[in-house]
Amino acid sequence: MDAIAAKSRVDQEYLKKAKGLTTSQRMVVMDAPGGVDILSVWEWDDGKVVKHSRQEKPAPSEWRSLKNEEPYNSTTMGTYKNLSKMARGEMNAQVAMAKGLYAVHGNMLKIFPKMGKFSAFTDLVKTIPCEY
Description:
The chain is of the alpha+beta class. The chain has six helices and five strands. The protein has helices at residues 2-8, 12-18, 80-88, 93-98, 108-111, 115-126, and strands at residues 23-32, 36-45, 48-58, 74-79, 102-106. A five-stranded mixed beta sheet has the order 3-2-1-4-5. The longest helix has 12 residues, at 115-126. It is globular, with a radius of gyration of 14 Å.
């Protein structure tokens, strides 16, 4: 998360695509290695990640029943297997959502206009070396 946040503040191509992304989101990663669920929180200011956090709990955790609430723009959920495919660029969010492999909770009227900017963030994530 630190590497992603750092790159989000300096990658000019990404920043052009993510301009105006000022929001916060949380993500629940279910069934991660080690038998845990992961809750991560991301906050952006004009595309730059300004705050992020990560917690783990034994799976299945109560986080699986989270819906969306203020101050978050959205709460996303998926299994580690599917989210790692998205992070590697093997599957995009729209396909995953259509197949029921990824859920987004929140006000879709507020989320949809930001989808291109979130896609730019996903593209940035793909550039960070990571072992899955």
